[in-house]
Amino acid sequence: MYRTKDGKEIFVLDGHTHFWDGSPGNQSNVHGKQFIDCFYAYHTNLSPPEHLWEKARFEKYSEDDIYRDLFVDGPDDMAIIQTTVLRDFYKEGFSSIERSSSMAKRHPERFIVNGSFDPRDGEKALEQIHYMKEEFDIQGVKIYTAEWHGNSKGFALNDPDAYKCFELCDKLGIKNIHVHKGPTIIPLSKDAFDVHDVDYAATDFQNLNWIIEHCGLPRLDDFCWIAVQETNVYGGLAVALPFIHARPRYFAEVIAELLFWVGEDNLLFGSDYAIWTPQWLVEKFWEFQIPDDIAQERGVQLTDEIKEKILGLNAARLYGIDVEAKKKQLSAAPVQIAAE
Amino acid sequence: MLTDIMRTDLEFEVWECLERVNDPELDEPVTDMGFIERIEVIDNHRVEVVFRLPTYWCSPNFAFLMAFGIRREIETLRWVRDIRVELSDHCFGDEVNEGVNSGRAFSAVFAQYCDDANLESVAETFMAKAFDRRQEAMLLGLRRRGLSAERIVSMSLGEFDCIPFADEEAIKQKPRYRELLLSCGLAEEPADLAFPTWEGQCILPDRLQAHLERLRGVRINMEFNGAMCRGLASTRYKEVEIGPDGPTLVDFIAGRVPPRDAAKM
Question: Are both B9 and B68 inside the same structural domain?
Fold first, then answer.
C-alpha cells in the first residue's frame, strides 16, 4: 500500500519482479556471467546512489530480502514473479517456477507466480504448460524470445510451434502472456529487437492479453504503432520508469508517448525487482508531473487517477483481482516487520 | 622510426575517419558514443582499432555494420596498408572479428549468418529511422520560423538550402538530412521537393501534423536508446584503464585522463 502525502491509500500491484539466482555457483558458462553482469549494469546505471546494492547480494538474494524489499520497505501490495529459465546459461535455471513458488508459499496472498515455456521444445513445451497449470495453477507466462538454446539464438511469437502453445494457453485459461523482447541474434538480417511478431500474435489470439515488457524498448516507436491498433496489447513500464530519477525529462517524453498511443488503461507498473526496488520508483512516480510543454504538445496528462490505474488497477483487472476484497484481506494480515 | 608526435598525428587522422562511422540504431557517431577503446598506429602504415559496446548482448548485426564501417573509413587513408579491427567483450565477438579481418567482402561474411537473406532490409529499416529523425529536426525548425504547413510541404531543395536555421539541433542535422536525401535519391535537383516521405511521397498540408507525430515517436525512441547506451557504457567501463605505456590519444579524447592536480591528490 502506498500512502500519499494527503493520506490516500493506493493499491500497488508490481507487474514485473523476479526471484533469481544468478550467482557464480549457478552459472554454467561465460554467458551466464555476462547475463547477470548486464542486469547489474542496468541497476548501477539508473538507481539512486542510496539504493545501490553490492554485487554479491544482487546476484542472489534471500526469501526474506524479497519480502522486505517489496512489502515491508516497499509499497507493493502484491507482486507478479516472472519465470526466466535460461537453461543454456544457468545450471538450475535463472529463476525457475519451482524455486519461486516455494518462496511464494510463505505469503500466497501477496504473490502471483507466472510460468514460462520454450516453443522450440515442441510436444515437451505443451506438456510443460499442462504441468504448470496443474501444479501451480498459473494465470500467466513470461516468454523470452531471445533465449539461446543449442544452435538457436531466439524465436518469434508467430512461429508455428509458438502458436500451438498459445492455443493451449487459451484453452486452459492462461490469459496473460508477458513478452520480453531481448536481442534475437540469428538471422542477422532481421532487426534483433523486432516487435512486429507481437502484432500477428495479438491479432490471432484476441482472448489473450499481450503484455509487452519494457514497452518494446528499444523499439518504443514500433511498439506504440502496434499497441494503438490492438486493444489486447499492454505495455509494462519496467526499464522506462527508472529514468524518472536519472533523466526525468526523457521519462516525461516516454510516458507522454505511451499515454498518447497506448493509453492509460493499458500501462502496467513493474519494478523489475531486483534490478530496482519499488519504494523509490513508486514514490517518484506519484510525485511526478509531465512538464507543461510536453503535456501540451502531446495533449496528455498524468493525473492521480491515471497513476492509480498504472500502479495497480490495470494489472488487477488482467489477473481478476477484486481490489477492495484484496485490501481487506491484506489489512487483516499486515506485513510482518520482524520477518527476519 | 616513428616519433611520438607523428604517431599522434596519424592516430588523430584515424579518429577523424571514425567520426563518420555511425551506430546505425542511434544515428550517432561511434566516437561520440565512447565506443572506441583504442587506436594504435604501428610503423606508419598499420592501424589497429579496438572498440566495445555498452553490453555483451548488443545487436550483433549492428556490431558487424560498425566493424566494417570502421574498416571502410580507415581504408580511405592513403598511408594505411594494414588494418585490424577488434570488438571486445561481446557475445558474437569471435564471429565479428573473424569476419571483419578475413579480407572477405561484407556481403559474403554476412550471408553466412543470414539464412541467405541479405542485410539490406535491416540496414534500410534503420536508415529510414535516421531519415525521420533528421527530417523532424528540419520540420520543427521551419515551424519555429513561423512557416505554414503549405509552405513547408511544398518547399524545394533549392529553397531549403537558402534557409538559415537558428536552433542547435537543426543546424547539426541540416547537412546530415541533405546528405541522406541525396544519397537515397529522394531529392537531387534544386526544384525537387525538400520534404518527401521516406517512401518518396509528398506530404499533404493537412497531414503534416500526423506525420510529425510519427516522427516524434521515432526521435524519442532514439534519444532514449542513446541515453541508455551512454549510461550502460559508462557503467560497464567505469574503471579508468590506462595502459602500461601511459594514456593514449583516445584516453585524452574520452576524458579518461584525470587532470594533473587531481592525480596528485
Answer: yes
CATH of domain A10-332: 3.20.20.140
Which residue numbers of B have CB closer than 8 Å to A's CBs?
A: 25, 54-62, 64, 91-92, 110, 113-115, 117-119, 121-122, 125-126, 129, 216-218, 220-221, 223-225, 227-228, 231-232, 234-236
> CB-based contacts of A325: which residues, under 8 Å, 6+ apart?
none
Residue at B221 is within a domain: no
| ipTM entry | 0.89
Q: Which of B216, B212, B229, B88 is CA-nearest to residue A193? A: B229
Q: How far is B218 from chain A (nearest CA, A)?
A: 5
How many domains does chain B contain in total?
Answer: 2
Pairing mode, strands A267-268 and A233-236: parallel
State how far Cα B150 lies from the chain centre: 33
- DSSP letter (8 states) at residue A83: P
In the block, residue with C-alpha cell 504448470 = A132
Chain B contacts in chain A segment 50-109 (CB below 8 A): none
- Of residues A34, A189, A187, the one with CA closest to residue B65: A189
Dump pLDDT digits (tens) for A125-180.
999 999 999 999 999 999 999 888 888 888 999 999 999 999 999 999 999 999 99
Same domain flag for B110 and B240:
yes
Q: How far is CA B9 from CA B69, B243, B245, B248, in A?
A: 21, 20, 18, 12
Is the CB of A218 less than 8 angstroms away from the CB of B224?
yes
Which backbone phi and psi does A242 adopt, to 5 degrees? -60, -20
B117 vs chain A: nearest CA distance in angstroms? 6
